[in-house]
Amino acid sequence: MNLLKLAWKNITHRPLNLVLSMVLFGLGVGLIILLLLLNSQMKNNFDRNLADIDMVIGAKGSPLQMILCSMYHIDNPTGNINVEEAKPFLRKEHPLIKTNVPLSLGDSYKSHRIVGTNHDILNLYDGKIESGELWENDFEVTLGKSAALDIGLELGDTFQSSHGFDDAEDMEHDGLFKVVGILEPTGSVLDQLILSNLATIWENHDHDGGGHEDHEGHDHSDHAVSNFNLLDYPDKDITSILVQFKNRTNFQALNMPRNINENTDMQAASPAIEINRLYSMIGIGVDALRNLAIIIALVSAFSIFISLFTSLRERKYELALMRVMGASPGKLFFLIILEGMVLALFGFLVGLLISHIGMEVLASYAKSSYRYSFTGKTFLATEWWVLLASLAIGFVAAIIPAIQAYKTDIHNTLSK
Amino acid sequence: MLETKDLAYSYDKTNWITFPDMSCSAGDSYLILGQSGTGKTTFLHLLSGLLKPMKGDITIGGKSLSKLTGGQLDKFRGQSIGVVFQSAHFISSLKVMDNLRLAQKLSGHPVDDGRIKSLLQTLNLGHKESALTKDLSVGEKQRVAIARAVINKPAILLADEPTSALDDKNCDEVLDLLEQTAKDANSILMIVTHDNRLKTRFKNQIVIS
Description:
The structure holds 2 protein chains of 2 kinds.
Chain A: H1 3-12, H2 15-50, E1 55-59, H3 63-72, E2 81-82, H4 83-90, E3 97-109, E4 112-116, H5 121-125, E5 129-132, E6 140-143, H6 145-151, E7 158-163, E8 172-183, E9 194-196, H7 198-209, E10 237-238, E11 240-245, H8 251-263, E12 266-269, H9 271-314, H10 316-324, H11 329-370, H12 382-406, H13 410-415
Parallel strand pairs in A: 4-9, 6-8
Antiparallel strand pairs in A: 1-11, 1-12, 2-10, 3-4, 3-7, 3-11, 5-8, 6-9, 7-8
Chain B: E1 2-10, E2 16-18, E3 22-24, E4 29-33, H1 40-47, E5 55-60, E6 63-64, H2 70-80, E7 81-84, H3 96-107, H4 113-122, H5 138-150, E8 156-160, H6 168-184, E9 188-193, E10 205-207
Parallel strand pairs in B: 4-9, 4-10, 7-8, 8-9
Antiparallel strand pairs in B: 1-2, 1-3, 1-5, 5-6
């Protein structure tokens, strides 16, 4: 019968108080941990997908939208750019550019985007082929691992794409895609994509649109990636170019985005800057939520205080009895502190449960609408700090009641 | 064993309650009589170390209570004094057994389940060891309170008006139990009361006026 057990018995003896404190405390802690998890996993996702890309070139519009679209594949394109105009930045011999990866977007299949590009995109994300082979000819596609698993496509399967990100039935194109390969999982956005050559996107759109009558006929092997040179098609459009500089501290390289923005009809943006801008925009909402969580935590601390305080009035005689049985005032102080901290500990555990289950729920939602993999199954080192803070709150909430217990006047209490 | 000398206490420093000198030895029983408001409870609280004497001294087993520090006094009280209060109170969140375990633990003694069980048997409470104290009858509560008071074999067993709420039959039973358990534990039994029924039973009587 040690003090911890006694504290535990005293707490569970009043289950309603216990539940109230636990729910309040759990909500506050749960919200805080949820925000921490969300923040860290979102940052991880964004950082992993930065892939050392220094600049994205696309059609004029919102630079953030262009970045979100071309690098994270969660927004629509700002428009298209003409190959002729983009020519200087598509050249392999550009003195400042190490890598330039053209992207042509516009179609998707079952919420997974079909990206027309060349094989260089694999180098950005360390993509490797797992089974089958890389896309080569028109309408051949290689799938990212998650895309293949989500859609349930295997080697040799065929499908028809739809325009944009929605799976509207009447928007289907008539080109038939064939799965020729599946990539190893990379943990990046590449896992979510369906990769094809650039001409496939043009073909697919020229077919049903009927507006452009200049297509090269039906021979799908015309545009094999290995001997395809984008610069030979100056009248075609692409969506954007992902650029890595040879030396990112080079003065000319640093000025390149501004030159493009001022002197061309295209825009260039730095992913790092745009994503930081995004963080600071989301940050306001996160701050507001965090403050709300802190307020809830404080209210719950107050509820622990009230709970202990009222229970002490009922238990005054019990505390005096404990003194008669040999307990020192310090022991009573410690007992009440323990009760406060045990309450806080349980609130923390409830919060831990709420946040990680909540994260799993969010994950299933985010996966379908943002194609980002969140998880509630990982834990952060900062959660230890939340535990410490919770115990501290329990301690602080218990101090005044504990002092009261310490000062219990045995003689007066027992004389009544 | 127990001695008091020139003992006095005052709540307002003007009206002093003085107590007669006593010298008791182990196994003795005493009746402390007095009308309400004469200082019986004060005397009991002085003897049990809940109040510190303002004048005079109490010596129990050779130890002077006024020379003990707060912590020493707490410990001494837990080990050497057992108190049965007028109305029985317990730690309500604990079962009978755990209430007694707590009494052993707080006094600094090791928890001895065998001792607790045999004591409960003696008091005819063997079947109540895992009951919550709120579910006990008045008589059962009284007996558990006695068990708790003697669990550590105290040098002195103090009882505060243990019979005032009882009819004649139960009154005798409780007195028997108190005497028996005090004798088993070799404790000095001191009953503070204004219940005249007890006068015929105890020959050692101290009147506070």
